[in-house]
Amino acid sequence: MSIAQPNVLVVEDEAAQREILAYNLEAEGFRVRIAGDGEEAMTMVSEETPDIVVLDWMMPNVSGIEVCRRLRARSETKSVPIIMLSARSEEFDRVRGLETGADDYVVKPYSVVELMARIRTQLRRTRPATQGEVLVFEDITLDSETHRVQRDGKPVKLGPTEFRLLTTLMEKPGRVFSREQLLDRVWGRDIYVDTRTVDVHVGRLRKALCVHGGEDPVRTVRGAGYALG
User: d(Cα 82, Cα 102) in Å, to the nearest integer?
Assistant: First the structure.
């Protein structure tokens, strides 16, 4: 299934944060553009309208709040989802951000995995066709929108981590993913998780997929990692 990659504009003045966000978004299959300040962001928006904006509040010169106001004032971007990132955790600040026009408000420090989920949630609202993909491998079906998995027509119950793991493997059947690659894609680059944790979750995934019988579809490649089929 060929689907246009959602275009995400990241507006963040901290270089390290920009890199982490860009890396994880690209790993999730998004097309990413980066702006280091509010003026650059508005220039980039005028060149190409993004599908979603991830916007830092605290920036020099033009703040995230002002960028949010400007985006909402333009007819081309008035309905583009905006997720605001901020170290401000008080209720007053959250309300101000949302009332200015942000669709979601995420407090720093945040979980990259959670932020990815929030981005997908906002895109489902505005670009449902990009998020309703159904992946199929042999007798396994995965619906990315409803988060339902079936094998041979029978429901398979998976936890959130196992679901992301299966999604990654089903997107590229036959490809061998190293433990480090799976950690990056499933847990996020900035989160420290021991590589043995991958083995534990692969074990859970295998058990869930074989609960109604059938062969184990997950292949262990000694010294390399895991693959589907």
Answer: 5
CB 51, CB 80: distance < 8 Å: yes
CB 64 within 8 A of CB 11: yes
**2: how many CB neighbours lie within 10 A of its CB?**
3
Token couple for 76: 């081309």
| pLDDT, tens digit (0-9, with 9 covering 90-100), for 73-119 | 998 888 889 999 998 888 888 888 888 889 889 988 888 888 988 89
Q: Say if residues 10 and 38 touch (Cβ distance below 8 Å).
A: no
In angstroms, the CA 49 to CA 82 distance is 12
The segments of the chain whose pLDDT lies below 50 read 1-3, 129-130
Q: Where are the beta strands (DSSP E) in the chain?
A: 7-11, 31-35, 52-56, 82-86, 104-107, 134-137, 140-143, 148-151, 154-156, 218-221, 225-228
Q: Which residues are CB-neighbours of 117 under 8 A, at least 6 positions away?
A: none
Backbone angles phi, psi at 139, to 5 degrees: -100, 15
Q: What angle do CA 171, 176, 179 make, to 5 degrees?
A: 100
CA distance 136 to 131: 15
Rg of the chain in Å (alpha carbons): 19
- Give the pLDDT of residue 4: 56
pTM of the entire predicted model: 0.58
| 177: its two tokens | 């993913």
